[in-house]
């Protein structure tokens, strides 16, 4: 899942991004509304975590623009105000969910995951394919009865492949969904991660390389 965090309190923004990355999400961070509009115009995000009170371009205007462009991106709006009227106004602008500050990080994560599921065809909470079970909420992977311990990027790549339901996923798509924008597009990080993931998942291999196209399960 790829997420954009838009928050002018830099310490909070960076802390949220770090926490979401530990949950195997690819996260980009910006600190004002103008930069947010630039990013959503270039990258495809599943979820935008959007502070309402932003400098340069207000969060309301960022939300309106995302809605106007008809993007499948879901918006989780943040605000320091817990007033009901503010929440209603935010939802009427086109936000998909609303979370007042201060918030528990566990709740933020749960809401981001729930919104991320709404950007794609609905799938069961626990993904199963080729003898592999992946639970995104618990961050657990099993092959049969054996639990497989994966690093965040390995988990993210496996989740993208599982969600494709047998379709081929290119290296470029994996890079877009599992890494942030600071990753060198010419790096071999995808190939190395897939190789490590194959080894950890064991025999017989479940990840198939489709020459010239990508990978599938």
From TrEMBL:
DNA-binding segment(s): 124-217
Organism placement in taxonomy: Bacteria, Bacillati, Actinomycetota, Actinomycetes, Kitasatosporales
Organism: Streptomyces argenteolus
Database matches in Pfam families: Response_reg, Trans_reg_C
Positions of the Response regulatory domain: 2-116
Annotated ranges, domain OmpR/PhoB-type: 124-217
Residues carrying 4-aspartylphosphate: 51
Keyword terms of this UniProt record: DNA-binding, Phosphoprotein
Gene3D superfamilies: 3.40.50.2300, 6.10.250.690, Winged helix-like DNA-binding domain superfamily/Winged helix DNA-binding domain
Protein name: Response regulator transcription factor
CDD domains on file: REC_OmpR_CusR-like, trans_reg_C
